[in-house]
Amino acid sequence: MYIQGAVEGAVNTESGSRVFVYEVVGLRQNEETDQTNYPIRQSGSVFLKVPYNRMNQEMRRITRLGGKIVSIQSLSVLELNGQAYEESANSEATSKATPEETALRQGNGKATPETEQQPKKKDKEGNKMTQAKAKKDAHADVPVNIYRPNAPFIGKCVSNETLVKEGGIGIVQHLKFDISQGDLRYIEGQSIGIVPPGLDKNGKPEKLRLYSIASTRHGDDVDDKTVSLCVRQLEYKHPETNETVYGVCSTHLCFLKPGDEVKITGPVGKEMLLPADTDTKVIMMGTGTGIAPMRAYLWRMFKDAEKAANPEYEFKGFAWLIFGIPTTANILYKEELEQMQQQYPDNFRLTYAISREQKNSQGGRMYIQDRVAEHADELWKLIKEEKTHTYICGLRGMEEGIDAAISAAASKDGVNWTDYQKEIRKAGRWHVETY
User: 112 pLDDT band (50/70/90 cuts)?
Assistant: First the structure.
């Protein structure tokens, strides 16, 4: 139930606090999950920590689960016997929470310790090179493992759209799933698991496969009711029989029809999350379906409807996507990307590496590492800036060529790229997810 007075009271409390404690009673299973066999809190007060920018979403979720909000209070002004109420609230909630919720809380809410500030190095020209220290975890409240393999959420396929144009290579689909009947929530850069139907070659249930989420936290329809994936059908030749083999889960997904059910787990992952700072520079290097998390980032930054839904998040920085694909027909989300580039030319730069149509400086195929090498000095200049975050997603092995290109540029400043990369990775500015 939406309690307007309570919300207004909470928002008007001490401005330095952005986290609030909800006291909720009566949470239960919804109609869909009533059929599952895992426990959910049935009654009694439960205390939930809610960041300010998720207050409305949390209210809707509580309402869906039949709960009633008794009170909302600012975390900063609540104390009990001289100790922060946060501790008592977590203890109370954990004692009545499901194993999944307990695991979620234990994995969140802990700040990343700051590293000691290293002396600023200088390049050959004597210019100081900033090295960011790790900041407190801005993603402490990121949801993880809400649904697990032994009790997945049963979603439904809303749509299944072909992304590869005529003449392209392979099958790649954009899938949208309805999650409105459950408690699945996520943010940009996370992944969900899909459990395909059937048994594996050993006669056991198929194991889940992880897929990067291609939508923002609000979904493609910006209504908090869907989650989307970008899936390529895996296809390869068997090394012994030379027969064509198709991936079990990717094939299952690529041929789903609207209305078909799908088992979803998660969400998982904190490696690929965007920084909270909106005045930052974001370098994205992706191949194929590695575009998925980057699509979510770009939607959050530049899509009109998404921006309207996130008045507290206004991207003021610069984003650069270097996207590797085999043919023009394989440019996934081409119209979306180019529309954003046209609308925000000062904030978004789009660079393709089309291997079977473009040539590198040696006359060979233009792969993503060749394009990175072409712009290495410019990229290195950006990477040195303390607010720059770099994201790499796609086929495993692409990192080696990227590292070689950046290393050559860094060496011009007398910097060992391997050591420097370790520093910015530790500082949470270098993000890699390859498969």
Answer: very low
Q: For tokens 């404690």, what's the residue?
A: 21
The verdict on whether 88 is a catalytic residue reads: no
Q: Is 212 a catalytic residue?
A: yes
Active-site residue 391, yes or no? no
Its domain, for residue 175, covers 153-268
Residue 47: the pLDDT is 65
CATH number at residue 293: 3.40.50.80
**What pLDDT is stored for residue 239 in this prediction?**
87
Beta-bridge partner residues of 318 = 281
Residue 435 among the catalytic residues: yes
Contacts of 185 (CB under 8 A, 6+ apart): 57, 61, 143, 146, 217, 224, 267
Residue 392: beta bridge partners? 285, 432
C-alpha 296/C-alpha 310 separation (Å) is: 14
Q: Which of 211, 333, 367, 391 is catalytic?
A: 211
Same domain, yes or no: 260 and 331? no
- Residue of 2, 38, 236, 435 marked active site: 435
pTM: 0.70
Is 32 a known active-site residue?
A: no
| 260/281 Cα distance (integer angstroms) | 40
Write phi, then psi, for 304 (nearest 5 degrees). Answer: -60, -50
Is position 143 within any domain?
Answer: no
Instruction: Look up tokens 């590869």; give the residue.
Output: 164
Higher pLDDT, 53 or 28: 53
Cα(359)–Cα(371) distance, integer angstroms: 10
Residue 320: inside a domain, yes or no? yes
Q: Looking at the structure, do residues 237 and 283 belong to the same domain, yes or no? A: no
